[in-house]
Design a protein that fits this description.
A hairpin with a 4-residue loop joins strand 2 and strand 3. It is built from six helices and nine strands; from the N terminus they run βββααβββααβββαα. By secondary structure, it is α+β, with helices and mostly antiparallel strands. The strands form two sheets. A six-stranded antiparallel sheet has the order 4-5-6-9-8-7.
């Protein structure tokens, strides 16, 4: 028996003894970049493993709608936010998110305890449903940029996220890239 998870651009198939991940993306995307493109709420953890350093989240903005008497499916709390994932002073990723919270626990974690989105899923011990919606690569200001749009959802929280990796050289150069002048 095989289980299949599929969406527009990524497909996971697995049995008791095998796993296969397929992703539609530009031809020049490397293996390491494909791993980052299919990260499911654990991008910060994967970047930390790659660079062997702490990755921090810097909040650029966070606009939250009315909270009312507690988040619920009938009274969701919505937030628009942007964060930078950073290694020291270097920006690894700009993540712009639209978040909808429908449970008091997720509301508390996001708004009161200021958890980052990935940490909410880890804290809840829930594996979110992942849908990769868009992948693109382009040159911006002379740097090769990689971006993805995806959705993460589990009971109590749904996030639609645009992530931009502003300089793909970080994936091929690693620590050398971290030490370069910007």
């Amino acid at each position: 028996m095989s289980a299949l998870e599929t969406n527009a651009l990524a497909r996971d198939a697995y049995t008791g003894a095998s796993t296969s991940v397929e992703i539609s993306c530009p031809e020049d995307v490397t293996g390491l970049e494909r791993i980052m493109l299919v990260a499911q709420g654990d991008l910060q953890r994967l970047l930390s493993a790659f660079f062997a350093r702490t990755i921090t989240i810097e909040c650029i903005y966070s606009n939250t709608g009315p909270r009312g008497s507690g988040a619920s499916p009938a009274n969701p709390v919505k937030q628009a936010r942007q964060v930078h994932l950073k290694c020291g002073p270097r920006i690894l990723c700009v993540a712009t998110s639209s978040v909808t919270v429908t449970s008091p626990e997720c509301e508390r974690l996001l708004l009161d305890e200021k958890f980052a989105l990935g940490q909410i899923f880890r804290h809840l011990r829930r594996y979110p449903e992942f849908s990769l919606l868009d992948v693109g690569a382009q040159v911006v200001d002379g740097k090769r940029e990689l971006r993805r749009t995806y959705r993460l959802e589990t009971e109590g929280i749904m996030c639609e996220i645009l992530e931009v990796f502003p300089d793909r050289d970080m994936f091929s150069m690693g620590e050398v890239w971290l030490g370069q002048d910007r």
